[in-house]
Fold this sequence. Notes:
By secondary structure, this protein is α+β, with helices and mostly antiparallel strands. It has helices spanning 26-33, 77-89, 151-162, 206-218, 272-275, 286-293; strands spanning 11-19, 36-41, 44-48, 57-61, 66-73, 93-94, 99-100, 108-113, 119-124, 140-148, 165-170, 174-178, 186-190, 195-202, 225-229, 236-241, 247-251, 266-267. Strands 1, 2, 3, 4, 5, 6, 7, 8 and 9 form a 9-stranded mixed β-sheet that branches. Strands 15-16-17-14-10-13-12-11-18 form a 9-stranded mixed β-sheet. Fe (ii) ion binds at residues 143, 145, 198, 200, 237, 249, 251.
Amino acid sequence: MTDSTKIRPGHxxxxxxxxxxxxxxxxxxxxxxxxxxxxEEDGAVWLRGTGAEPFIYGLVEGPVFGIEYVHFAMPDxxxxxxxxxxxxxxxxxxxxxxxPFHDYAGGWGFEILDPDDRRLRFRCEAxxxxxxxxxxxxxxxxxxxxxxxxxxxxxxxxxxxLGFRVSDYSADQMVFLRCASDxxxxxxxxxxxxxxxxxxxxxxxxxxxxxxxGRMKQRGIVPTWGPGRHGPGNNPFAYFCSPTGxxxxxxxxxxxxxxxxxxxxxxxxDVPEAMDQWMTAGPPTSAQRAIMQGRPDPGWxxxxxxxxx
Length: 309
Ligand SMILES: [Fe+2]
């Protein structure tokens, strides 16, 4: 599946969620989750981490529980043009030619729809914020995990259209995809319908990961799954349920991939210590699996008629 000639996104900038009433949950992310307010406007809240990204998580009022867009960086306009050409050549539903964005984060780029009608935005020349180091606060969005009814087709699409590479599989239920050195920026889970499985936020160290769980606990909020350490990706995890009912994760120490030596493997699910290295978390409960399946996200089918340019 790996094709080293493919253009791929520079990194995952973050994600914008949409849901009814979601902007009213901003204080949960500011006071408990450890994000900071970057910008606010009518019907939208932009939250930053401690890094230079203009925002890593957006809250936008909308009629459904799902994704406004998944947000990727490209290093420059030349790479952006090359990715746009590659997406067109591979038959993706491209929503217009690269051009300026007139939103808070600014810059230049384009959008596409994936086969489940999820909107993906690619942006270069974005606003940059001064790095704001702060103990035990999320630095960035580590990864976004998506449920899909046709995992193989979506895996093929992300690799073919966007140059993602397969890092590992979890049995025949999940595939981990990278666009940079992080073991996964996107992962796909076999599900009954398209939806958000979870969004993970990276803490810079294991101590800050634990302290973040502690901050939540002091506010009376405990993980719905974890803490534990995953097998694939080797990352500590602690999952929580957001006030909107989305699953969010604290993580750290995600495996960094050496392109010269890494070989994808299929991790078995019937070896508990392979999936839960510390043996602290146990398997997810049926309630946890239900909130990770989430609510159906119709995506943006109404944008299809803007496609292929
Ligand atoms: Fe995760």
